[in-house]
Amino acid sequence: MSPIPGGKQSGANNDQDRLARGRRALDSIDGEAGHNVIAALADIAPDFATYVIEFPFGDIYSRPGLDLRSREIATIAALTALGNASPQLKVHIHAGLNVGLSRDEITEVIMQMAVYAGFPAALNGLFAAKAVFAEADVKGVEAAQV
Question: 126 with 87: CB under 8 angstroms?
Answer without folding.
Answer: no
